[in-house]
Structure formats: C-alpha cells, structure tokens
Amino acid sequence: MLKRFVVLILLVLSLAIVPSVLAFIEVKNDPSPPSGGASLIDQLNANLRKQEELRRKIAEAQSKEKSLSAEIVYLDSQIALTALQIEETETRLAQLSGDITKVTGQLESTKQDLDYTQGVANTRVRAIYKQSYIESFGAFLGSEDFNDFLVRQKYTEAVRSQDLALLKKLDDLKEEYSNQKADLEDKKNQEEALKQELDKRKTNLASQQGSKRYILGVTQNDEKNYQRLLAQVQSEIESIARALGGGGVRLGPVKRGDVVAFQGNTGCSTGTHLHFGLYIGGVAVNPKPYLDSGQLRWPETNPTITQWYGENYWWYMNNFGIPGHNGIDMTAGYGAPIYAAGDGIAYLATDSSACWLTGTVGKGIVIHHDNGWRTIYWHIK
C-alpha cells in the first residue's frame, strides 16, 4: 500500500515539474524589442538620400567641359560623398554592434536554458530507468480495484507525454543554440568586413583631399595653369605609351647599376625630374615594393620623391581613366646619373615632335629585362 502511494506521489510530482520547466523556458525566451533601432535606421536613410544627391552632382560635374572650377566641384562632392559613406559605415557598425550584443545575450540565455533542461532530462531518464514503466504496469495489475488501475495508468501516460515534450524542447533548444551561434558568427564576420570597408573609405577620403591640395597647389587656383597641367599629363601618358610600344633605338645590354642616362627636363616637363615606371605584362605596377625589397635598384641615389605611384588617384581617374600617377617622380638634381634598375637590353625612345608647352622633345630609356619586365626612365637629358 505504501509503495503504491509513493509511486503515485512521484507521478504527480513529475506532472507538476516538467510543465513548470517548459513554462519557465518560454518566459525566459520572450523576445524584447531592440532599443534605438528606429533612430539608427532613420539616420541611415537620411544619409543614403544625401549620397544620392551628391552622386548626381558628381555626374553633372563630370559631364561638363574640363575646367578647374568643375574639377573642384567634382573633388568637393567626392570628398563629401566619401565622408557620408564613412558615416554610413559607422552607423551600420553601431547597428551591428547592437545586434551582436543582443544575439550574445540570447545565446547565453539559451545556453543556460539548454543546460537546465539537459539536467532535468537527465534526472527524468534516471527516474524512468529506476521506475521502469513495464514493471510499474505489472504492479498496477495488482491494484486493489480497476478504478485504482485506471488512475495509475492515466498518470503514467501523462508523465510519458510530459517527458516527450521535455525531450522535444531539449532538441529545439539545441537547434536554437546552434542557429544563434551561427548567426553570431555571421554578424561578427559582417562587423570585420565593415571595419575593413571603413578603413578603405578613410584612405579614400585622405586621397581625395590630397588630390584637391595637389591641384590647387600646382595650378595656384588659376584656370590657365590647370589647362597646362591637363595637357602636360596627357602628353606624358601618350609619350610613355609610344615609347613602350615603339621599340626605340637599341643601345645594347646593360647591367644592374650601370649609368644609362642623366636627369633632364625634356618633353612636357616644366621642372627637372625623372619619371620612373615599371611594367609587368604590359601593365603599370607600383615599383616601390620591388625597389624596397631589392629586386630592383633605385634609379637615382637618395632622390627626393615628388609624386608616388598611385597618388592623386581621383584626379587621374576622372581626367585620364587611370588609377593615379603611373610611376614614381623623383629628382636628384639636374644632370644626376640614372642607373639601370636591373639587367636587360636598353633602348633609347624619343617623341616624334617637340612638346608645345616646353618646345623640347621627350626622351627616355626603356629597359627590357630578362624576366619580361620593362622599366622606363623618362625626361632624360
């Protein structure tokens, strides 16, 4: 009699405990709305509208005849656009940071629920093992009457149902935990990508501001000077392209470090300097990494750099369709020796006619290196 009473009490407790566990988990997982989300979205939408206005302004400036005023409008608009893009990226980062905090909290809460539910499930499994429903059913056959048996069977089936619900909830929690973990990882990857994008846009902003300073400095805010600059750069680009494609006069083999020319100011150069370029597969590449690593020798001794490769990207791209200055401009003084950057065959290249701006013919050395690279040394004496 006492044994049956104890079994009955255990069944009743099981019915009470398992539903309370499930209810507790449901209450804990009740989602709360994120704070400040609407404000960030409003900021983002306003930012994107301003960006669209600036893009129209940039397109309008690009469609106009090339002039200093149009160039300044273009650069100012591009600078403002990039500043807005930086602000946009920072807003998205703030939004994502809030999402990461929220998902992290959900993940921790789900982990607690999972651990708790796992513990309850383990307890129930041990209880089931000890009680053994089959043995209990056999014991029910020895009940005092049929009504007693029906009551016991009803409670047993109810406990089984609650145990199944508990196991189902455990499986759901495991899946939820896995999904939240994947979501958190995805958001962290997005955050890292946005940080890289932010760095890139900040670099672009500095480059655009540098292009504006360069243009204003070189032209002294004078339209005639600006038109001369456009013609000068266009002429240099065309001269170098002809020199690379035309072969020139073969001078013969040279060794790394041999003097191949002397610094001058021929062609459309308004001041003495050396334009040094590196071409791999017919495409201009940044020589600096190869010079710094020692693969190539610096063509001048202790030169002053006046313009690096890729500098003034936005101005060059807007006016000439190339991603910035296509070589390194340097000076070691008029008449300074110029050295071969590596072994190869040297050719003397000259323009077919004098530059209208200076009245001199552009001259340079092109070296065809054994590995297929080419280096060019322009504006020589």
From TrEMBL:
Source species, domain of life: Bacteria
Domain M23ase beta-sheet core: 324-380
One Pfam family, short name: Peptidase_M23
Keywords on record: Coiled coil
Coiled-coil positions: 41-71, 167-208
Gene Ontology MF, one: metalloendopeptidase activity
Gene3D superfamilies xrefs: 6.10.250.3150, Glucose Permease (Domain IIA)
PANTHER family: MUREIN HYDROLASE ACTIVATOR ENVC, PEPTIDASE-RELATED
Protein name: M23ase beta-sheet core domain-containing protein
Lineage: Bacteria, Candidatus Woykeibacteriota
